[in-house]
């Protein structure tokens, strides 16, 4: 690898080991074997390099998720039960969240910095739609090229919201994480109107009692 690639690899390592805000240019130099001047030459600044490291790390994590996704992904939408595929894929994602805590912590730290770091916010904003499209492809078991624009715009942010929330929850309450089956059941209940009502009863159960 050349200095540019070495710097990016070093920055990605620092992102996980030290965090975004605590990483210095000298940390990256030590991790990459490059020199201080090469950061400015190849990336313009340490901050620009760290922004690229965030994006590259996220993309690699997503690629790894495709490789580890369950065999159900290979089935067509007609042949695979959507909720079963949803649950199985989330189990894969949840396993990675549980076993890659340093990466998750680094990603959640970055989220907290977005309101105060315009450059970081813009960099992530540029790739966010593509990330949502990739999640749709993973969860629907299709190639990226088969994800339509409407699905990417509407369903992509839904998966991103779930993923982000689960990442945060894993840091706060790692011993109380949902399973893929839990998430699938939650979707089923919401879409069937079976969420708990004001009196604590399940709405579906209350209707059954009323009709008895």
From TrEMBL:
The keyword DNA-binding applies. It holds the Pfam family TetR_C_31. The keyword Zinc-finger does not apply. Keywords: DNA-binding. Residues 24-43 bind DNA. Residues 1-61 form the HTH tetR-type domain. This is TetR/AcrR family transcriptional regulator. It comes from Streptomyces yunnanensis.
């Amino acid at each position: 690898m050349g200095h540019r690639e070495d710097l990016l690899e070093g920055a990605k390592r620092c992102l996980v080991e030290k965090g975004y805000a605590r990483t210095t240019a000298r940390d990256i130099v030590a991790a990459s074997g490059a020199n201080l001047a090469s950061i400015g030459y190849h990336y313009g600044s340490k901050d620009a390099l760290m922004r690229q490291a965030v994006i590259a790390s996220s993309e690699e994590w997503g690629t790894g998720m495709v490789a580890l996704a369950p065999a159900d992904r290979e089935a067509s939408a007609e042949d695979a039960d959507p909720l079963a595929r949803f649950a199985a894929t989330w189990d894969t994602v949840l396993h990675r969240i549980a076993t890659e805590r340093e990466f998750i912590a680094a990603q959640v730290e970055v989220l907290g910095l977005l309101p105060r770091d315009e450059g970081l916010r813009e960099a992530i904003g540029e790739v966010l739609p593509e990330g949502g499209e990739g999640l749709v492809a993973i969860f629907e078991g299709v190639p990226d090229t088969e994800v339509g624009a409407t699905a990417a715009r509407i369903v992509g942010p839904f998966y991103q919201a779930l993923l982000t929330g689960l990442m945060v929850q894993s840091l706060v309450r790692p011993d109380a994480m949902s399973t893929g089956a839990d998430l699938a059941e939650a979707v089923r209940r919401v879409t069937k109107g079976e969420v708990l009502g004001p009196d604590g009863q399940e709405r579906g159960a209350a209707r059954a009692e009323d009709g008895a």
